[in-house]
Amino acid sequence: MPLRLFCGACQSFGVNHEPGQCAACHRTVPLKKGYCRLCWIQASLEAKDSPQARGTVLEPFLRTIHYQQLFLADLQRPRSKSSPVGRAGRRRSRRPAPQPPPSAPPTGWVQLKLPVEVRRDFRRFDRRRHADLANPWLARARDAAQSLGEARGWTRSVISAVDRGLVILLSSADGGNIRYSELFPVLRAYGLSVGRTVEVLDRIALFDDDRVPSFESWLQRSLAELAPGIGAEVEHWIRTLRQGGPRSRPRSPETVWTYLRAVRPALLTWSDRYDHLREVTREDILAVIDDLSGHERHHTISVIRSLFRHCKKNRAIFRDPAARLRVGEKPRKVILPLQDTEIDEAVKAATKPLDRLIVALSAIHAARPKTIRELQLDDVDLGNRRLTIAGRTRPLDDLTYQMLHSWFQHRQTRWPNTANPHLVINQQTAMETGPVSKVHLTESFRGQAATLERLRVNRQLDEALACGPDPLHLAAVFGLDPKTAIRYADSARRLLTSTAEEQDPAGSGEPKGRNHP
Q: Of 313, 330, 354, which residue sits at a domain end?
């Protein structure tokens, strides 16, 4: 850890104030109203010892400062004799036990709420005037933040930032929910943690999430230019894809976005001529797909069939114009193996313990990036040298064992108090319980020819080339779908056939270029 030349208070004082010559000690340092921080602290000590001091007015004491009592960092405030001290000399903070929120309004008169919605502006908060640490809701929230921080392994700075945010939001709390649109501006202005403060408020049922989901705003923008009749049916189709239906599973947002992007040009063309999808004919669909080819044509036909099948099922159209529109078998390309130089470049890019572990899991165990992100600590058994990936337990080879051992040592040193059960964590998720993002997992391999996905594919193809193009063997080893296993076996069979033809083009059974008697 680098050596800190100043304590946190002095650093904050220096950032928030301009330097100059102090009126008391005549040093050139950051000043507040003409005086440095040490002189302000000395004046505060003089005011506390003076029986004539009233309130917190320090100006008269600053004018009489002619010396400074030096002190150690963060120890300028003397402890009272009754304050308990721990074994290491650190003061143990004793918070009052959380009081239950008031369940009934007070007797007497009650201030009724206006029927209009009034939003609170927390940016006007002043800690000296508005902070109320005795508020029962604030006490309850601080206690919840402390227990949550201990369970998640929050650092001291994170706990302090969350506490500051709770003081701002709950000093005048009366039991009403706090909207996200109200707390976000003030927390972002002070540089405080928004997500963790929201988590604490949600834990004590004081949070109201009034954010508009990005999916909703995107859907409204995408459907804005369509005819009302067409847009209504397309919206119902998209929401069924996203949320699922009686006989359909919910799709991921990426899949839904891809579906609507594929069919949107056709919908815009039909909206210029028709008011409803029931007016679209088979010729209109053929006119759209005639200009497409390859994968784009195959995907667009599949999406159009899905749209009209949904409309026919919900009786929004009389007949399905895409019912007999055949998609056909998509041409399969031969999967080619990676070059040795491409694999070497990917290995050189893995300089961190986590990157080397990710390469081992992808190139040796053919684990998908999503599977690596979701791996749990319980999936690794170093003692018995076993590893469970996607529900399938397999033995640990020596290289993966070394990579896991190095990563566990780094993880324990870097985040000793984390409670995240996932195998792969970073600075952000170490104080949470969720997995890392896809971007964090793949950022070290950007620009490489051998990406994590290609390393996984190359491992499965290498297995088919080494042990023979047997789909049953590939499905048993990697847990592949039957169609996927057949595809890998077919690619391996083609590669083996082409290699044999190159070695013996005349069919003599001998390699090319060898002399025979």
A: 313
- Closest listed residue to residue 65, CA positions, set 77, 92, 47: 47
Amino acid in position 367: A
User: In terms of domains, do 267 and 195 share one?
Assistant: no
Q: 62-71: which pairs have CB atoms within 8 A and are 24 or more residues apart?
A: 62/23, 62/24, 62/35, 63/24, 65/24, 65/25, 65/35, 65/39, 66/24, 67/42, 68/25, 68/38, 68/39, 68/42, 69/42, 69/45, 71/41
Each as own residue / partner, the long-range contacts of residues 184-188 (CB below 8 Å, 24 or more positions apart, any chain) are: 185/122, 185/123, 186/122, 186/123, 186/125
Which residues make beta-bridge pairs with 30?
19
Task: Examine the domain organization and report whether 262 and 295 are in the same domain.
Answer: yes
Domain extent at residue 284 = 214-313
Per-residue model confidence as pLDDT tens digits over 298-346: 899 999 999 999 999 999 999 999 888 776 666 677 888 889 899 999 8
Q: Please indicate, yes or no, whether residues 224 and 179 belong to a single structural domain of this protein.
A: no
Q: Are 177 and 208 in contact (CB under 8 A)?
A: yes
CATH number (domain holding residue 413)? 1.10.443.10
224 part of a folded domain: yes
CA-nearest of 359, 364, 365 to 347 is 359
Distance CA 515, CA 517 (A): 7
For residues 145 and 167, membership in a common domain is answered with yes
Judgement on whether residues 162 and 227 belong to the same structural domain of the protein: no
pLDDT tens sequence across 47-97: 777 765 555 577 777 878 877 777 665 555 544 444 333 333 444 445 555
Residue 364 within a domain:
yes
Residue 128 falls inside a structural domain: yes
396 neighbors 435 (Cβ within 8 angstroms): no
In degrees, rounded to 5, the angle at the alpha carbon of residue 342 between the alpha carbons of residues 340 and 348 is: 100
Residue 271 lies in a domain: yes
Which one is predicted more confidently, 158 or 116?
A: 158
- Contact (Cβ atoms closer than 8 angstroms) between residue 229 and residue 277: yes
Scan for tokens 């080494």, then name that residue.
466
Helix (H) or strand (E) holding 196: helix 194-203
What counts of helices (H) and strands (E) characterise the chain? 21, 7
Report the residue count for the chain: 517
- For the chain, the domain total comes to 4
pTM above 0.70, yes or no: no
What string of DSSP letters covers 371-411? HHHT-BGGGEETTTTEEEETTEEEEPPHHHHHHHHHHHHHH
Question: In 3D, which of 448, 289, 469, 456 has the Cα closest to residue 370?
Answer: 456
